[in-house]
Amino acid sequence: MVEINLNDAEFFAHHGFYPEEQLLGSRFLVDISVSFRPTGSLLADEIDNTVNYEQLYDIACEEMKHTRKLIETVGQSIVDAIKNKFPFIDHVRVCIKKMSPPLKGKVGHSSVIITNFID
């Protein structure tokens, strides 16, 4: 089993339930983890035998551009896009952290984790 991780990919986006959040935008950090059984030899040193984390970043980047009320929706969209791009994966986990959420007190971040085990 191989696990590929992309951590703390940073984005500025306009997700939020309240109109002010969608207008002003926020800073988000995205973590992605995928696991799979290699179909080819990793010793072949070929990118086609693994999950390209550059493509994981590109998927997250594209989905973060679409303004949504809930980061749960964004997370599920990232998971779905990854599953479509890499149908051989066994597991995908996406964590989206909203930095300094607009609350009454100081909070470092709020987060949502979407986990999908593929049968």
Structure commentary:
The structure is a single chain. By secondary structure, this protein is an alpha+beta fold. The chain has a single domain (2-117), classed as GTP Cyclohydrolase I, domain 2, CATH 3.30.1130.10. Helix content is 28%, strand content 36%. The protein has helices at residues 19-24, 53-64, 71-85, and strands at residues 2-13, 26-36, 89-99, 109-117. Helix 2 (53-64) runs antiparallel to helix 3 (71-85). The longest helix has 15 residues, at 71-85. The protein is elongated and about 50 Å long. The model has no long low-confidence stretch (mean pLDDT 94).
Rg (CA only): 16 Å
Q: Could you list the spans in which at least 5 consecutive residues all have pLDDT below 50? A: none
CATH architecture: 2-Layer Sandwich
**What's the name of the CATH homologous superfamily?**
GTP cyclohydrolase I, C-terminal domain/NADPH-dependent 7-cyano-7-deazaguanine reductase, N-terminal domain
What is the percentage of strand-forming residues? Answer: 35-45%
Report the biggest beta sheet as strand number plus sense, adding barrel if it closes: 4 strands, antiparallel
What count of domains describes the coordinates? 1
N to C succession of SSEs: EHEHHEE
Distance between the termini: 15 Å
Structural class comes to alpha+beta
- The total of helices stands at 3
Q: Count the beta strands.
A: 4
